[in-house]
Amino acid sequence: MNIVQFEVKRNLKTTIIWAVIVTLAGLLYTAMGPSFIDQSETLIAFMSGMGEDFLNGLGVNLDTFFSPIGFFAYVGGFIALALCVQAMIYGIKAFALEKNNKSLEFLYTKPNSRTNIFVQKYVSNIILLLLTQVLVIASLYIATDLVNTMSYDHSLMLIMLLTFVPLQGLFFTLGTIIGTSVSRLKSVVSVAMGVTLGMFFINMLAGVVGSDPLGYASFFNYYNLSDIAFNEAYDTTFVLISVGLMIGFTVISLIIFNKKDMKIT
Amino acid sequence: MNNIIEIKDLTKSYGKNRGVESVTLNIEEGEIFGFIGPNGAGKSTLIRTLLGLQKPTSGTATIFGHDISEFSKLIASDVGYLPSEVFYYDGMKVKDLLKYSASFYNQDCSGRITELATRLDLDLNRKIQDLSYGNRKKVGIVQALLHSPKLLILDEPTGGLDPLMQQTFFEILKEENDRGVTIFLSSHILSEVQRMCERVAIIKEGNIIQVNNVKETSDDNYKKCHIEVANGEQLTISELAGVTNFKNEEGKVSFIYKGDINEIIKHLSTYNLKDLSIEEPSLEEIFIHFYQ
Question: Which of B12, B87, B129 to substitute to test the interface with A, most A CBs within 10 Å?
C-alpha cells in the first residue's frame, strides 16, 4: 500500500484546506438560516413574485424553505457543487496529472501491475474524499443543530447531508474516465469546473422546465435536496442508476488504464 | 550463455506512424550491449515496449525468460531503468523520492542510496524541482541502481552529466557489470558505446540494420585514410568498393576504407601523393553513413 500512503500524504494538506474552506462556507450559510426563517413573511411575499418555475430551478420550495430542512435544501446545493468540483478534480488528477508530469513512467517501471497502481491511486483519493466528507458533514450537522431554535427532523438532515457521498462518488469516477483517457490535459481544474458547473446548470434548467429526461443528464438531480426534503427519502431509481454508473465508470477507467500506452512525448 | 533479453519480430506502430518494425535481437547475460541510432530511429520506442510502458503491435519479447506483456511486474523487480529524460514529483526532496522508489522493492536500499549519492555528489536534501538537468539525471541513476537490479536499461544515460561525472558513472556501470549485471545502453553518442559496449545494434527508421561486435568492428577492417594530392588531380577513390565518408577539399582527401589494405595502397600508389596517413577510425566515423 505504498502508493496509497504516498498519495494521501502528498495530497492531505490540499484536501484539508479545501475541506475547511467548504466547511466555513457551509457554516456561514447555516448561520444565515435562522435570520431567513425569522423574516419568512416578508421574504415569501417577495419570492412569490419570482414564479414557481424559477424557484424550482433554484431548488426553493416556499412551503418548506423557511425551516432548517428547507433552507438546507437550497444552500446544500452550493456546498455540493464545491464538493463535486473537488471530487472531479481528484478523479482526473489521480491519473492525468502523472501523465502531464510524466511521472507515471516512474510508477509503470516499478514492480507493480497496472491494476494495482490503479486500485491504490483510486483508494487513496477515496480516503481523501471521505476525510472531506466527514469534516463537512459532521460540522454542518452540528452547526445546524446549534444555530436553529426551531425543531426539525435530524435524521432527514443527516440523509440530506449524506447526499454529498454519492455525489462526490459520481463525479470522482467520471473524473477517472477523463483522467485515464486523455494523453495530456492542459488544465485539470477548468475541465472539472466545466463538467460540474455544466451539470449544475442542467439540473437548474431541468427544475425550471420540469423536464425528466434532462434530469437524467445531471448527477445533481439524482440527489435533488428539495425532492429529498419533500419525500424524506432518496429516489430509489436514481440511487440504483448512480451505483451502476459509479461501478461502470470505475470498470471502464480500469480497462482504459490497463490498455493505454504510455506515449513518448 | 543465457539470453537475458530475447526479441522476436517485434513491431510497435502508432496508428500509421512507424515505431519499430520486426526487430529481432538477443542480449546475453552479463554483456554490455549498445543500441545506437539517430534521433527518432526507434530506440526509445523499443525500450519502452520492453518495459511494458506500451504494448507491442506484434511479435514477442522476453526478459529473464518471461514474456514482457504478461510478466511485467515480475520482470520489473530485477530491472533498473534510467529514462532519457527524468521526470519525478516536484515538491519532493530527493531522499523522499528515493525512499518512495525503494519502497517498491522488498529490501533495505538505504545503504546503497547513500553510497551512490556520495559517489555521484548528489545532495539528498534538495528539492527535485530545484535541481539542474544533470542533477536530476543523477537522481535517475540512483533510482535505477538502488535495488541492485540484474538488468540495467539505460536510455541516453549521460545527457546532462559533466565529463567527470560521466567517468564516475561509467565506473559504476563497470562495477555493476563485473558483478554480473547485464546492461542495455541506448545512445546516439557512439564514442560512449565504443567505450562501454561489447556488441552494438544499429537501428535506423525502426529497423535493426546491423549487430556488430564493437571490438572487431573497430579493430579489423576499417581504416581512416588521409591523403594530399595536387589540386585538380582526378581521383577515382570514391568509386572503390569499401570506401565511405569520402571528402575532397582542394586536394585534401579523407575517407573510411573497409577491405584489404593492400588493395587501397595499390590504388593510392597510382597518384602523385604529397602526404598519406592511415589511422584507426572511431566508431562514430565507421557508422556515420547509417545516420545519413
Answer: B87
